[in-house]
């Protein structure tokens, strides 16, 4: 029961950030990726965004309670998300050549972006397990 | 000072790099770097192989629109399972345990954990596939579980859930 306020705050932040992520990515699905059924992925997206922000805030940032080096963690967070965007578009470009098919309609942009973001935050946790400076 | 049998030591509890006499050895760092690079190759090789298996089962299961997500999720899964849970690549020195004593309690504990996760995944996939028929023709939120593109993601999601469960609940 220690620091119950901090834990509830982090929980609230996780839910809010996940909700914002889903709505933002749904908008991108429509306007950038050209998908007309992005909403159909809402149920699949929200759990992954919840996992992502849970890993990011509690695992990577060490909230609540850890003495967080805010600047370094903020830079790391931006790097993780930018790498997620880069790999999303990289694989969108190379996927037809590898497995065939088309990406003219790419309804999985949110799913793909959160997948790569999860990859990089998990990699950061792995590397951080033997190199805490990350 | 850490020993070859140290396992499950959190980063905060580990001795700092500068106080570990082993860390001053260039060959030590070279070997650790090689181990980490090898671990990453194993992780992403396993992800590519698994993705290929699902593509090979039926080309329609992993097409261009899904390839990126499937490949990334399997990479995520193996990074967590091999890197963070088993500690390959220097995390919790699981490989040190293996080198010193293959059938040590720690190695057996991890093997039991993986076994439980695999059994739990199989049961979860079977149950969710069975009960998906009650979610209507479109499945649950777009998850057509019988022979659709998302088929590959199903065991992965459940596998991830079970490995996280095994580790954080501390079941074994």
What this model shows, in words?
The complex is a heterodimer of chains A (about 130) and B (about 170). Chain A has four helices and no strands. Chain A is mostly helical. In chain A, helix 1 packs across helix 2 (about 40-60), helix 2 packs parallel to helix 4 and helix 3 packs across helix 4 (about 110-130). Chain A starts with a helix and ends with a helix. Chain B is mainly α and about 170 residues long. Chain B contains five helices and no strands. The two termini of chain B are about 25 Å apart. Classes of the chains: A mainly alpha (about 130), B mainly alpha (about 170). The interface of A and B includes residues 92, 98 and 102 of A.
- Low-confidence runs of chain B (pLDDT<50, min 5 residues)? 1-19, 139-149
Tell me roughly what share of residues is in helical segments of chain A: over 70%
Shape by Cα distribution of chain A: globular
What is the number of helical segments of chain A per DSSP (H or I, 4+ residues)?
4
Helix-and-strand structural type of chain B? mainly alpha
Rounded to an integer in angstroms, the radius of gyration calculated over CA atoms of chain B is: 19 Å
Low-confidence segments of chain A:
none
Beta-strand residue fraction of chain A? under 5%
Number of strands of chain A: 0
Termini gap of chain A: 30 Å
Gyration radius from CA atoms of chain A, angstroms: 16 Å
Q: Whole-Å distance between the termini of chain B?
A: 26 Å
Oligomer: heterodimer
Main beta sheet strand tally, sense and closure of chain A: none
User: How many H/I helical runs of chain B?
Assistant: 5
Number of strands of chain B: 0
């Amino acid at each position: 029961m220690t620091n119950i306020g901090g834990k509830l705050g982090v929980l609230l932040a996780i839910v809010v950030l996940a909700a914002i992520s889903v709505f933002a990515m749904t908008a991108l699905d429509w306007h950038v990726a050209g998908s007309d059924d992005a909403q159909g992925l809402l149920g699949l997206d929200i759990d992954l965004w919840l996992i992502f922000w849970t890993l990011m805030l509690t695992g990577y940032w060490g909230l609540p309670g850890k003495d967080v080096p805010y600047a370094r963690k903020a830079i790391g967070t931006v790097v993780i998300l930018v790498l997620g965007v880069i790999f999303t578009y990289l694989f969108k470009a190379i996927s037809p050549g590898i497995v065939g098919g088309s990406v003219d309609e790419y309804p999985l942009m949110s799913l793909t972006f959160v997948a790569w973001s999860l990859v990089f935050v998990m990699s950061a946790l792995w590397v951080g397990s033997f190199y805490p400076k990350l | 000072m850490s020993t070859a049998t140290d396992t499950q030591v959190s980063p905060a509890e580990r001795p700092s790099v500068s106080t570990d006499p082993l860390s001053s050895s260039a060959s030590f760092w070279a070997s650790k770097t090689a181990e980490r690079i090898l671990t990453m190759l194993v992780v992403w090789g396993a992800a590519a192989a698994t993705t290929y298996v699902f593509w090979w089962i039926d080309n329609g299961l992993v097409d261009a629109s899904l390839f990126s997500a499937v490949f990334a999720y399997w990479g995520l899964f193996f990074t967590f399972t091999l890197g963070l849970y088993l500690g390959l690549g220097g995390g919790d020195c699981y490989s040190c345990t293996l080198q010193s004593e293959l059938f040590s309690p720690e190695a057996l504990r991890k093997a039991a954990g993986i076994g439980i996760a695999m059994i739990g995944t199989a049961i979860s996939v079977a149950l969710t596939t069975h009960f998906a028929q009650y979610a209507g023709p479109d499945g649950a939120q777009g998850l057509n579980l019988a022979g659709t593109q998302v088929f590959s993601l199903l065991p992965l999601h459940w596998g991830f859930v079970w490995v996280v469960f095994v580790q954080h609940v501390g079941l074994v």
